[in-house]
Amino acid sequence: MQTAQAIQELEALVGSHNVLSSRAERLVYGYDASVFRGTEVLAVVFPESAPQVARLVTWCKHHNVPYLARGTGTGISGGAIPTHGGVIIELARMNRVLEIDLANQVAVVEPGVINQDLKQLLLQHGYAYTYVPDPGSQVVSTIGGNVSTNAGGMHCLKYGITSNHVVGLEMVLPDGHIVEVGGKAVDTPGADLTGLLVGAEGTLGIVTKIIVRLLRLPETVVTQLALFQTVDDAANAVSNIIGAGLLPAALELLDNTMMRVVDQAMHIGYPAHAGAALIIELDGFQEDMPRMVERVAEICTMHQVISIETAASVEASARVWLSRRAAFGAMARLATHCYIVDGCVPRTKLPEALRRVTAIGERYGLLIANLAHAGDGNLHPAIPFHQQNPGETERVLAAGRAILEACVELGGSITGEHGVGIEKQNEMPLMFSATELEVMRRIKLAHDPDELCNPKKIFPRSMFPEVTA
Amino acid sequence: MTTADALGARLEALLGPGHVWADTCTTASYRLGTQCPTIVVQPQTGAQVAEVLDLATRERLAVVPWGQGTQMHLGQLPARYDLALSLARLTRIVDYDAANLTLTAEAGVSVREVYRLTLPQRQFLPLGFPGTMASLGGLLVTNTSGVKRLRHGSVRDLLLGLQVALPDGALVRFGGRVVKNVAGYDMNKLFIGSLGAFGVVVETTYRLVTLPEEDQCLAVAFPTLAQGLAAASAVRAAGLLPSAITLLQAAVAAAWAPTLPLQGHASQVVLLVNYDGTAESVARQIQESRALCATHGSLDATVLTGDALMTWWAHQHSWCTVPSTEDQMMLQVRLGVPPARLADALAQLATLPACCAQESHWCADVGHGQVLARLPLEPLLSDTTVRAVQDWLHTLRIPLQVLQGYGVVEWAPPVLRQQLDVWGESSGVLLLQRYKQRFDPHATVNPGRFVAGL
Questions:
Q1: Distance between CA atoms of B165 and B48, rounded to whole angstroms?
Q2: Minimal C-alpha gap between B446 and chain A (Å)
Q3: B177, B192, B438 member nearest A192 (Cβ)
Q4: Which of B142, B157, B182 to mutate to test the interface with A (most CBs of A within 10 A)?
Q5: Whether pTM exceeds 0.90
Q6: How far apart are CA A132 and CA A115, in angstroms?
Q7: Residue among A81, A66, A210 at smallest CA distance from A150
Q8: Do B278 and A190 touch (CB under 8 A)?
Q9: Do B182 and A180 touch (CB under 8 A)?
């Protein structure tokens, strides 16, 4: 159909103030935080309710136009990149916190609510509860986006990932039906559909409402910075801390390269000779802290720890965390782009995995700075590069693939939290047989047989029939 | 050769002799309601399970999987029943990785066996009840979480991966052994609570939890239900970390443990709060809870620990599991509501169907808004009884739905069960129907037993 007519019809559906159609605007929405770039879209629309989303989806289905949902575009696997044009359904205006139900320890939110904003709101009210999932992007990313990738974060070691904090949701299906799954009551009859739909990367429908679990704020929090001589020592200490039955709230590892990058940017004062830094956060009851702190110190000492310092104030604690949370930002000083690999291995295999990452860096002639959610075995090698240099992007992606192959070989996964999107479509066969991919695809076909809803993502590109535009 | 003989021969060719039975004695022991299977098979591997399903689908046979048989009463009776598929031989421990706190085991392994294996490493799997014979696969497909769910997580939180045999004969794995894994759809979740509707789980990987240093349960008697509920609410809001909060009628508590050292014959309900963790934190939480309960008019309190606590849970387990005699005239229902509306759920039990012989008995999981109620029925099942129960169920579900809750029938005598809407309404039925169409188009596994007659 004619573009002008299409725009007119979309404006009629959501109001002209909710449609962006200028060329510049449409091009801008072809980017997200990943290294991928999309094709030109027809329009960007901003629905304000689930029925509006349903009408948009129905319109797209009727006109055979692909579409995808977008939060704030912080994803780095390309989940929000429009690879086939069509319509971007931007959920930023569906950003209300609909209900805070402390008695049931849940909140009901629209998908556009920013992760950190929910935490802030609870804090402002002086509630003793918080929303725990804290992906690195939490200041900017939306809860809908977090749900779509099943985002992790630094506190999922103890508290679980997004999926463990979603008890129900509402989704607009590609045929326009609005379904509700899960709810405030647990164990609703039927399968765990809520769990199945979390992490579907926007390919099964559009989430329009989420019921999230709130958790009690811990009584006491202790933040520590431990410096080790080698990455091996730090990673082994992590294994043993957890193996000893202690469950810290967070265990974040930075290698020497990353420490230098962060130090240059923020002047933390990391000693040059330290091979690795480990941020340890312990939380729980006051009476448990001394013994926990002592036990952790004992285990770190067994692994030749150079020093452990406990942050003596809230500000000191925030500074320790800033060095971790601003790490990727600090990488921006090294090159125009930074590729963040996301792989996962069993915790005890982390030292070996990091050794292989170093070897791969050398093999491909690339500088790699390492961050890891060490307690989960979730590594984030960060590779600075210049996208405009011919061949450099390919080399970086090849190194990334080699790292993922190593992770799978060690019994892990090609993605711990960032999702498959576009980035890892062709790595899916590292983990799944053709039969397994076909079985997984049955879910997609049950939702979106027309392949219009964030089309051709997740599955290996060789699997798709043509989408007629 | 009859069709049954021919089928038996083909199954023996697949599984070997000695793993296929067609005699009436064996088939009778796999009876569900009034139906017995024609043949019972006991594959030795997941691959064999897949082959059996493949054959069954091609021949349009109906298969009912059996784990340890502890919860076969759930769901509706099967619409058809040709093969009993016993997973009793799938009992291998594939990989116990204590350092990483993960356990991979075949679906037929019992929780009791898991405890035996992991306790020496000071680890445990918080599913089902300690010492239960329920199988790992069975717990998964019935979505049976554990007593300590409030602190240590549910089936969904503990499941890392599985291997499943599909009705079309495929044998596939989803998830893995790592805690963080978002590669593709979270397919594991499709099978949780599915009663086998989409496939038969043959192997599971679960996350384990460190055994706590101390484990105690505070038991408190209250004169009225209202006070017990108020105290329970206060405990929930108190910033403590209970592993379980249970409220039950004093009469039920007395039946479970006549020696429970609680004074107060005037008590109507007993509140039990379980804490586990370090000795210091458990002691403090018990003390604080005790004080809280006192402010809500508690009559007496005692602490259960060690063997006494294990015995208590064993009683709770056998009460919640149905009677083994199928002709017991009883209705067992599970009501689910948002936890803050538990009082409303209990209020629904005030009006019972006319055919109830005596008053109902109930036990409530306060932390999760779940009530398990047992209604004794008149000894003779008549059309009037059936009608009365149907009406009661229907009426019960209206206010529950308004509360965003539900009510399911967990047990009823087979003749009655067949005439009841066991599951009630369920959101997401549309999706379940579509998945069923793609995973099990010929309704091979447990036909008719699941939600919406699937």
A1: 9
A2: 14
A3: B192
A4: B182
A5: yes
A6: 9
A7: A210
A8: no
A9: no
pLDDT at position B266 is 73
C-alpha span between A144 and B12 (Å, rounded): 52
Q: Which stretches of B233-324 are assigned E, i.e. beta strand?
A: 244-249, 269-277, 300-305
d(C-alpha A179, C-alpha B122), whole Å: 43
pLDDT band at B409 (very low <50, low <70, confident <90, very high): very high
SS3 A303: coil
Mean pLDDT by 10 residues, chain A (469 residues): 91 97 94 91 97 98 97 95 96 97 97 98 95 93 97 92 97 97 96 97 98 96 96 94 92 95 88 94 95 96 96 92 88 92 93 95 96 94 94 94 96 93 94 96 97 96 67
pLDDT digits (tens, 9 = 90+) for B117-134: 999 999 999 998 888 899
On the CB side of B131, CA atoms within 13 Å amount to 11
The shortest CB-CB distance from B189 to any of A192, A432, A437 is to A192
pLDDT at B110 exceeding the cut of 50: yes
Are B161 and B206 in contact by the 8 Å Cβ rule? The answer is no
Residue A219 CA to residue A353 CA, distance in Å, equals 35
Of B398, B142, B393, nearest to A192 by C-alpha is: B142
Q: In chain A, count H helices and then E strands.
A: 15, 19
A234 min Cα distance to partner chain B (Å): 16
- Look up the ipTM and state it: 0.96
Residues 124-143 of A with CB under 8 A from B: 128
Query: What DSSP state is assigned to residue A38?
Result: P
B101 in Cβ contact with B160 (< 8 Å): no
